[in-house]
Write a structure and sequence with these properties.
Elements: E1 6-10, H1 19-34, E2 38-41, H2 47-58, E3 63-68, H3 69-72, E4 83-87, H4 90-100, E5 103-106, H5 111-125, E6 133-136, H6 143-154, E7 167-169, H7 175-181
Parallel strand pairs: 1-2, 1-5, 2-3, 3-4, 5-6, 6-7
């Protein structure tokens, strides 16, 4: 991809046990600001989401949060970002984040992050989009996920080419370079099907 103006990042509303997760979020925020890539994310100011948004903003970048009204108080909507969209549902949140993104990066996270990851990969499998998806393997976080994907393929429940729906990068410093190596999307976005 020649030009990436907006990256949707899925990540946890907790910081996690390993300090590398926080460091990864901080570094990604700095890289995005340096490369003038706008952050699109879940809108919270807690956990890795808040760390990432703060890092982007502190480095002079732009961050757009999207949070459902019922989560705004729980995840404490981040009022210090460039834009904060408060929406009616999780579904609306995901669709708006999708619409605003050129590509996706996934940091460590909990069940919500896993849900977003599976959904965006599934949408690509269904050819609803062809936007790149990067899994940032901070301290081997995504290795169990890869084993699950390989297991599903071995069991004949997914095709081997499904392994190509996403790219694993070993650390956050590889995200921008890996995105730029991705081919331009071939499938037009089909948001009316989402």
């Amino acid at each position: 991809m020649e030009h990436i103006s907006s990256l949707c990042v899925f990540c946890g509303s907790a910081v996690g046990a390993d300090p590398i997760y926080r460091e990864t979020a901080v570094r990604l925020g700095q890289l995005m600001a340096e490369n003038r890539i706008r952050l699109v994310y879940g809108g919270g100011r807690v956990g890795l989401m808040g760390v990432l948004a703060d890092s982007v903003m502190e480095a002079g970048g732009s961050a757009v949060g999207v949070i459902p009204r019922f989560l705004e108080t729980r995840e404490v909507g981040h009022r210090g970002v460039s834009e904060l969209h408060i929406v009616d549902s999780m579904h609306t949140r995901k669709n708006l984040m999708f619409d605003m993104a050129d590509a996706f990066a996934v940091l460590p996270g909990g069940f919500g992050t896993l849900d977003e990851t599976f959904e965006i990969i599934t949408w690509r499998q269904l050819r609803l989009h062809d936007k790149p998806i990067m899994l940032v393997d901070a301290n081997g976080y995504w290795q169990p996920f890869l084993r699950l994907v390989d297991h599903v393929i071995r069991e004949g429940l997914a095709r081997p080419e499904c392994r190509q729906l996403f790219t694993l990068v070993p650390d956050v410093d590889e995200v921008v370079a890996a995105l730029r190596r991705q081919p331009e999307p071939l499938v037009p976005d089909l948001p009316e099907r989402l």
